[in-house]
Structure formats: structure tokens, C-alpha cells
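Hey, resending since the last one bounced:
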Amino acid sequence: MPRKSRIFGFNALIMKKMLVILWLFLLFSAVAGMFWYNDYVYHLPTPIPGNYRPVNNGTYIPLSGTFDDRHDKPVCLHFYNPSCPCSRFNIPLFRALVKEFGQQVDFAVVVVNGKNVTAKDIQDKLGVDIPVLFDASLAATCGVYSTPQAVLLDTSHRLYYRGNYNQNRYCTDEKTSFAKLAITELLQGYTHPVFSPLALKAYGCQAISCKK
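The C-alpha cells again:
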């Protein structure tokens, strides 16, 4: 083979390898960019709806059915959207709370935007045997506009806490388990709890559409 042909073939091979490396680099950059963007979005607070009406602590929250006449325990309402990834991230943490405080607190799941699902579906998905409520109006009653959110009522069914389970949407930071802290303080008799702004600023999916 002539020397020029060998050089040309060698250069073509190098160019081909460089193009492959460049393609892999661009692909890796695109994947890394997507992960970075999703992580960035998940750390943004949920936009407050224009028609949002805040509900103050101490407000009486009427409950029908299961908890209507029961005032022997505090009530923890878990606002859950089956299609919300943030709600799915939260499942292990919520299940742990039910296991730890289930004898002292009445837990219930409030399904938001739960189409074509049954109470049994929700119980199986969450791995808990607690009441499931399909009353989306409770979200506005409690001042909830994102999922997942925890609403804690005292034994008189007055709002004690409405906020996040955790500092971020992945619900993996044990140091900022706000809902657990609220339950603990209520059971210990604290009547005027003070919560971090991060606990009260909603992080998650929008309650109805589950979109940012």
C-alpha cells in the first residue's frame, strides 16, 4: 500500500475515533444536564396558586366519616397524588411514621387527583393499612396546594401543622424530618410550636396537575 494511502487511512481512523469520543462526550453531557436540571427543579418551591387562601394554625378542620366523632388522638392527614414522583419518593418516610406513631396518632391518606384507583390500591402502594379518603376539597380546607404534604390536627381537630415531611423532595434528610418533629412536639404537649420556614414552604407537585 502506498505511503500516502496508509497515512490517509490512519488519519481517517483517528478522525473516526475522535468523532466517536465527541459523540459520547455530548451524550454524557446531555444526560448529566438532564439530571442536573431535574435536581434543580426538585429543589424549587412549588408555585403558590393565584387563588390560594392560607389557613392559620388553630383553625378547626371539619372531618367527616371515620374521624368525625373521634377526638381521643391527634390526626395526621397525608396528602398524596398517585402520579406525583415526589409522593413516591416520600413513601418510605411516611410508612416509617405510621409504624412509629400509629398507636398514638390516627393516620389517613387523602388522595388528590386519584383517578381510577381504589383505597386498596393506595394502601398496597404505600404499604399501610389506614383509612383512605377521596375528598380533594380537604386540600383547600387545610391550605394544601402540593403533594406530598402532612397536615397534623390536635385532638380537637384544629390545625397544628401543615407542611413538608422533609427539606427536599427526595425525603432522605433525617435531620430535617419536619413532620416527625411536629408529631413529636404535639404528643409532648407543645401548644405553640415554631417551625422552620423550610418546613412551611411547599415543595412538591402541584396538588391538582402535579406540574411545576
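Residues 67 and 79 are 16 Å apart (CA to CA).

Sorry for the duplicate.
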